[in-house]
Amino acid sequence: MHHTTDADLVTDCLAGSREAFAAIYDRYADQLHTTATSMLSDRDEAADVVQDVFVTAATRLGQLRDPSRLRA
Questions:
Q1: What is the Cα–Cα distance from 2 to 10, expressed in whole angstroms?
Q2: What is the pLDDT of residue 57?
Q3: Closest listed residue to residue 48, CA positions, set 64, 32, 61, 24
Q4: Beta carbons within 10 angstroms of residue 34's beta carbon
Q5: pLDDT tens-digit profile of 39-51?
Q6: What's the rounded Cα separation, in Å, for the pair 1 and 62?
Q7: Closest among 20, 2, 13, 1 to 64, alpha carbons compared
Q8: CA–CA distance, 2 with 22 (Å, rounded to integer)
Q9: What's the CA angle centered on 37, arms 13 and 9, to 5 degrees?
Q10: Global pTM?
Q11: How far apart are alpha carbons 31 and 62 in whole angstroms?
């Protein structure tokens, strides 16, 4: 499955595609982990934050007003 935009991924994820959610994770997890690590100075705590972010994203993805702004 190849997606070029966040909006495509959100649409497919909302339609039930686990692959789309995995692609969202692959696209943003490392970047989120790097940011969280720099803020917290603790890699394990940063990993917990990343997990929390993706749990929240999974439960609230349908609330996005503009799916193309997933990153924000």
A1: 13
A2: 93
A3: 32
A4: 12
A5: 999 999 999 999 9
A6: 21
A7: 13
A8: 12
A9: 10
A10: 0.89
A11: 23
The 3 state secondary structure assigned to 33-58 is HHHHHHHHCCHHHHHHHHHHHHHHHH
Q: Nearest 5 degrees, angle CA 63-CA 56-CA 43?
A: 145
Q: Average pLDDT in the 45-70 region?
A: 94
φ and ψ of 70, to 5 deg: -55, -45
Please give the single-letter amino acid code of residue 30.
D
Give the separation between CA 35 and CA 57, rounded to whole angstroms. Answer: 17
18-39: pLDDT as tens digits: 999 999 999 999 999 999 999 9
